[in-house]
Design goal:
With 210 residues, the protein is an alpha+beta fold. It is 37% helix and 31% strand.
């Protein structure tokens, strides 16, 4: 009787053991281990970097083309309280000559930032208190310089977040030729990132001559 019970116990243990082995084999098939770490090649990294820069240049080119289309609307009056003026821009060397510097950041939302520098000609009238006076003003001053634009990559797209125009010289059209202005003038339009206080001071000096 004891031998019979002992044999049944051994048989039950074997059944449990076999079932456990089958269960482990089943989960091994269904749950493979972690995938091996993928090492990105230097060539792939270079291609990705080139793609990012190419996309940024495409965005810059699109913005320049839009600005050049607006250049045909030289009679368009712009308001920047409390003044009125006319302005348009040209990019003589186009987007292909732009200097692009892309930097990687530690931010998850903006993993890359970029500075783009491009040659620019800005044409603007003096500031006027009244829209009618600005509309009648056809005397444009020409600023020659460079525009520095800052971009951030957000959700895989380049987004413009700011810019500043640095003028090297200012000219006035005299007898059909561009020449230094006959009288000293302040820059008529502030750069995008300049403080409003400093812009208003220059605007007031351009009007009063003080």
């Amino acid at each position: 009787m004891l031998e019979k019970r002992y044999s049944k116990g051994v048989a039950l243990c074997l059944v449990v053991l076999l079932a456990s082995c089958s269960h482990l084999q089943f989960w091994k098939k269904r749950s493979p281990g972690p995938e091996p770490l993928k090492v990105e090649s230097a060539e792939a990294v270079r291609e990705t970097t080139e793609d990012r820069e190419a996309e940024l240049r495409r965005v810059v080119r699109k913005q320049i083309e839009a600005a050049e289309r607006d250049a045909g609307q030289q009679s368009r009056v712009i308001r920047r309280k409390p003044y009125f003026y006319k302005e348009y821009a040209e990019y003589p060397e186009g987007a292909d000559s732009a200097e692009v510097v892309v930097q990687e950041t530690e931010s998850i939302t903006t993993p890359y930032v970029a500075d783009v520098t491009v040659s620019k000609l800005r044409f603007a009238t003096r500031l006027h208190r009244r829209r009618k006076e600005a509309a009648a003003d056809a005397n444009f001053l020409r600023d020659t310089g460079t525009e520095r634009i800052t971009f951030e990559m957000r959700n895989g797209k380049w987004v413009r977040v700011g810019g500043i125009f640095l003028a090297d010289k200012t000219e006035e059209k005299i007898d059909g030729e561009w020449a230094p202005p006959r009288e000293a003038v302040e820059r008529t339009v502030a750069a995008e990132e300049e403080k409003a206080g400093s812009w208003l001071k220059r605007a007031w000096r351009s009007i009063t001559g003080g």
